[in-house]
Amino acid sequence: MTTAPSTGSDLHAEIEVDATPAQTWALVSDVRRMPEWSPQVRRTFVPGGAVRQGSRMINLNHRGWMHWPTQARVVRFEPHHQIAFRVVENRTVWSYTLEPLDGGTRTRIVHRRESPDGVSKLSTGLTKVAFGGVPAFTDELREGMQRTLERMSAALTS
């Protein structure tokens, strides 16, 4: 597991897993299971059923006693390679990219949070007021990304 320092508001973490890209894709692309892995996500709804390019998602997130909903849309969906979704409220793009290793017997999962259009002022303001400030919350997100990947890895090898 490695994490890279953030560049502005962009975050990055990765892990190598003992599973094929197809096995890993089946897990990563099942966004309804995100609450099993992410320390922040409580529930994920995908109206309309199947997850694909353009699918809408509604998440219920939590931190301690605080709970808040977010909406997202799948903006990249390349089976066995990448899924990415843009969160409406803060404009960030969260993604999982799969890279085959060892002739396809293992996989690197690269988890990113990017903000190509910047983070919304509303989200930044709420982070300052409710989450202890942007630097503290960014560190918390980075740690959460690590835990998410570790939990995914454990699910793939169990």
Automatic annotation (TrEMBL):
Transmembrane segments: none
Source organism superkingdom: Bacteria
Secretion signal, residue range per the UniProt entry: none
A family per Pfam: Polyketide_cyc2
Listed InterPro entries: Polyketide_cyclase/dehydratase, START-like_dom_sf
Name the record gives this protein: Polyketide cyclase / dehydrase and lipid transport
Lineage, opening ranks: Bacteria, Bacillati, Actinomycetota, Actinomycetes, Propionibacteriales
